[in-house]
Specification:
The protein is α/β, with parallel strands linked by helices. Helices cover 35% and strands 21% of the residues. α2 links the parallel β2 and β3. α3 runs parallel beside α4 and α5 runs parallel beside α6. The structure holds D-xylitol-5-phosphate (DX5) and zinc ion (ZN).
Length: 214
């Protein structure tokens, strides 16, 4: 299974996003991870549609949009129009997951479903025939720069086993606290789409940091 690196621009130099996008492409990063927070589903507020629109006009890098918002269904069309290549929403949100998946897939883009650290991974099993990816949060969503929660590794291996046993072809994404040390834990457990924010953007050499994750 191919490994992809997705850079969370929450950790980027936000005053120089265009240059940061260039840096991602130059250093072999596969995707741009765009964290949307509404101050309701999580405590923090980040950035949203107008910023994504601008980024989409500037760069063709794959846009991996992570919606940490209460009512994702209401905003799917807008995030598709703004240039998302994949939209991931939370099973804990107040929207009906079946409707969100149907809306994302009808738009012809990839769909991911996410669980917070305390949500049992079994809760998303019934959606596996329709989603392209499951995001297992490895920190509590809301802020970059937190420490990896080790207990999440078991959820990753349980899910990878279930995916294999049932013949699905689902990517497993991890997000939060991933660096040169924690990468081996999540890789061994079966994750193949790796989000990294502060580790990648603060590295002395982004190229070396990407290599260490790949
Ligand atoms: C957390 C976000 C993450 C975060 C990752 O709520 O979803 O994408 O920016 O940042 P690091 O890699 O710094 O933990
Ligand atoms: Zn994220």
């Amino acid at each position: 299974m191919k490994t992809y690196i997705s850079a969370s621009i929450l950790g980027a130099d936000l005053l120089n996003l265009a240059a940061e996008c260039d840096r991602l492409k130059e250093n072999g990063v596969d995707m741009l991870h765009f964290d949307v927070m509404d101050g309701q589903f999580v405590d923090n507020i980040s950035f949203g549609l107008p910023v994504l629109e601008k980024l989409s006009k500037y760069t063709d890098i794959f846009k991996d949009v992570h919606l940490m918002i209460s009512d994702p269904l209401k905003y799917i069309d807008a995030f598709v129009k703004a240039g998302s290549d994949m939209i991931t929403f939370h099973v804990e949100s107040s929207s009906d997951p079946d409707e969100v998946i149907a809306a994302v897939k009808a738009a012809g883009i990839r769909c991911g479903i996410s669980v917070k650290p305390k949500t049992p991974v079994e809760e998303i099993y019934r959606f596996l025939d329709r989603v392209d990816m499951v995001l297992i949060m490895t920190v509590e969503p809301g802020f970059g720069g937190q420490g990896f929660i080790p207990e999440t590794a078991e959820k990753i291996s349980t899910l990878r086993r279930y995916i294999t046993e049932n013949g699905f072809d689902t990517d497993i994404q991890v997000d939060g606290g991933i660096n040169a040390k924690t990468i081996s834990v999540v890789r061994d457990a079966g994750a193949n789409v790796i989000v990294s924010g502060s580790y990648l953007f603060n590295a002395a050499s982004m190229a070396d940091a990407v290599r260490s994750l790949k």
